[in-house]
């Protein structure tokens, strides 16, 4: 067992499933929280991270040491609430200094019941996570901070692992929602909400779509009832191998030759619909500074990521879809570790990327993908006439 200790004014402890302990200061709400400990490398955009539904079930570690100086506001929310299971920072801002701030980060965490810890060696924790892979962990503060160490570890090891979890139902809308196009209308897009972010909806509406946001349990008949000119699968948390129902519906979409665009979780489910396998990454990609190459143009983009799973596919050349959808190619590749970051079907109107082109906190290198989707839909409509 490894132990890292500071002299906190109000104690908190982070316990990893391998027994490693980091003692620090209570931050946010007091109590106990359990989840998969993952690190995010962005130096800004912490509010977008906290309110991204893809982080449901995860305790997020910020590698940037100073967090909270711009506060929180309603305008930058990616959803209606904070979704992270817990929060780890090195040095919380002592005061907010931004004209757009409406409350402090600490107050927001307390208000929404998010248990956090500060004052620990986040660099050592990040290095340990990179060496051993993402692990289950628990943050204990308030009365729980002084509970028995063996009992704390028992709670951590009894928590479910991320692999095998289907979390879409916890983050999806329960009823359909329609957002009308904010520019010249080109048609309807049916969005399967697996944990969608508000900026994604805004971008789709700005393309000229009436956006029909449907629950994750939507059937192909539900999709068809929107008279869709396209279908979109969003980002979201959980293991793609545990989402058989959404994959089956997506195969019906592909069979009907409805134009399809998927991001993040939607990329993984597209891969599965094509007949490819997915796997869990050692520590995942999370942050707004991930280099990806677009193989069609040779252009390197700095992109926003949040995923712990990936699609297994040949990086070079074309290959046949095992499920009979014709030729497929890997369109984008991550340059840090050669992970598949995009798929493009060559014989049906469908493509996907593993990262987040809406990137509300930046960068915006990949924003062109929304225009590519719009062009695909317009070309498909012309071909049908």
Structural topology:
Elements (H helix, E strand, L loop, with lengths): L2 E2 L6 E6 L4 E8 L3 E9 L5 H5 L7 E5 L3 E2 L18 E4 L1 E2 L12 H7 L3 E4 L3 H11 L2 E7 L7 H10 L9 H4 L5 E3 L7 E6 L5 H9 L2 E6 L5 H5 L5 E4 L10 H12 L4 E4 L1 H10 L2 E18 L4 E14 L5 E3 L6 E8 L5 E6 L4 E4 L14 H17 L1
Parallel strand pairs: 1-3, 4-5, 5-7, 6-8, 7-9, 12-13, 12-14, 14-15, 15-21
Antiparallel strand pairs: 2-3, 2-10, 3-9, 4-10, 11-13, 16-17, 16-19, 18-19, 19-20, 20-21
Helix pairs in contact: 8-9
Describe what this molecule looks like in 3D.
The protein has ten helices and 21 strands. It is of the alpha/beta class and 385 residues long. The chain has two domains: 3-158, Carbamoyl-phosphate synthase small subunit, N-terminal domain (Glucose Oxidase, domain 1, 3-Layer(bba) Sandwich); 168-384, Rossmann fold (3-Layer(aba) Sandwich). Strands 11, 12, 13, 14, 15, 16, 17, 18, 19, 20 and 21 form an eleven-stranded mixed β-sheet that branches. Helix 8 (244-255) crosses helix 9. The N and C termini lie far apart (67 Å). 48% of the residues are buried. Mean pLDDT is 93; it is low at 1-8.
- Annotated CATH homologous superfamily of the largest domain: Class I glutamine amidotransferase (GATase) domain
Give the DSSP E fraction (strand runs of 2 or more residues).
Answer: 25-35%
**Helix-residue proportion:** 10-25%
**What is Rg?**
21 Å
Residue windows where pLDDT falls under 50 for at least 5 positions: 1-8
Number of helices: 10
Task: Provide the CATH topology of the largest domain.
Answer: Rossmann fold
């Amino acid at each position: 067992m490894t132990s890292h200790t500071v002299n906190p004014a109000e104690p908190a402890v982070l316990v990893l499933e391998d027994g490693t302990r980091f003692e620090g200061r209570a931050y946010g709400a007091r109590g106990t929280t359990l989840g998969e400990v993952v690190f995010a490398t962005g130096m800004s955009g912490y509010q977008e991270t906290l309110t991204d539904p893809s982080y449901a079930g995860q305790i997020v570690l910020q590698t940037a040491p100073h967090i909270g100086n711009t506060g929180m506001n309603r305008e930058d929310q990616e959803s209606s609430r904070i979704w992270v299971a817990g929060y780890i920072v090195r040095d919380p801002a002592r005061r907010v200094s931004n004209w757009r701030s409406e409350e402090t980060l600490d107050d927001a965490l307390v208000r929404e019941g998010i248990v956090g810890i500060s004052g620990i060696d986040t660099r050592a924790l990040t290095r340990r996570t990179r060496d051993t892979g993402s692990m289950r962990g628990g943050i204990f503060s308030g009365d729980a901070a002084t509970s028995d160490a063996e009992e704390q570890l028992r709670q951590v090891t009894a928590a479910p692992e991320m692999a095998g979890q289907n979390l879409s139902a916890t983050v999806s809308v329960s009823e359909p929602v329609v957002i009308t196009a904010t520019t010249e209308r080109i048609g309807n897009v049916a969005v399967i909400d697996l944990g969608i972010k508000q900026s994604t909806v805004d971008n789709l509406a700005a393309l000229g779509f009436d956006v029909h946001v449907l629950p994750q349990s939507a059937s192909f008949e539900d999709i068809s009832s929107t008279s869709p000119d396209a279908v979109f699968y969003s980002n979201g948390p959980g293991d793609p191998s545990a989402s058989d129902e959404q994959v089956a519906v997506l195969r019906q979409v592909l069979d009907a030759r409805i134009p399809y665009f998927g991001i993040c979780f939607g990329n993984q489910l597209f891969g599965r619909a094509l007949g490819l396998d997915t796997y869990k990454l050692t520590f995942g990609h999370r942050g707004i500074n991930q280099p990806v190459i677009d193989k069609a143009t040779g252009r390197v983009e700095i992109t926003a990521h949040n995923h712990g799973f990936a699609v297994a596919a040949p990086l070079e050349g074309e290959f046949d879809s095992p499920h009979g959808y014709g030729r497929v190619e890997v369109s984008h590749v991550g340059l840090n570790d050669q992970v598949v970051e995009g798929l493009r079907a060559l014989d049906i109107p469908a493509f996907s990327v593993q990262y987040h082109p809406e990137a509300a906190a930046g960068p915006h290198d990949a924003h062109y993908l929304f225009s590519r989707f719009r062009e695909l839909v317009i070309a498909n409509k012309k071909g049908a006439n």
